[in-house]
Specification:
The protein is mostly beta strands. It contains no helices and four strands. The protein has a four-stranded mixed sheet, with no helix packed on it.
Length: 119
């Protein structure tokens, strides 16, 4: 059984992350949205705007896909990205186990990386 950073239910719970929710209907050019979900952000949102997971980590889903250091497969042509972006409206990319293949030269406002500050 696959789970999401917020648990096992669909649509996402309130403040689960920054996805393509009902607020996206107001934006020209958006192809779709998650019915029954709204996060009040149409593009990227400030860090820490979603609820933390059970380990106290924020923003593991939505906002931007996050680059990972591992290769997608043995060909070493594509890297792994996880977490979906603010444009995400499909179920599969938001599963905690989902891995997306991205060419390392990809540049977009929907993909980025995580900075972790340790005290």
């Amino acid at each position: 059984r696959s789970i999401f950073p917020w648990g096992s239910g669909w649509p996402p719970i309130a403040r689960a992350g920054n996805f393509s929710g009902e607020e996206s209907r107001r934006t020209a050019g958006r192809a779709g949205f998650i019915p029954g979900y709204s996060d009040d952000a149409i593009g990227t949102a400030p860090v820490g705007g979603s609820l933390p997971n059970k380990f106290g980590l924020y923003d593991l889903a939505g906002n931007v896909e996050e680059w990972c250091s591992d290769w997608y497969d043995g060909t070493q042509r594509k890297r792994v990205a996880r977490g979906g972006s603010y444009e995400e409206r499909a179920v599969m990319p938001l599963y905690s186990s989902a891995r997306m293949a991205r060419t390392p030269t990809t540049a977009s406002d929907t993909i980025g990386f995580r900075v972790v500050l340790v005290p």
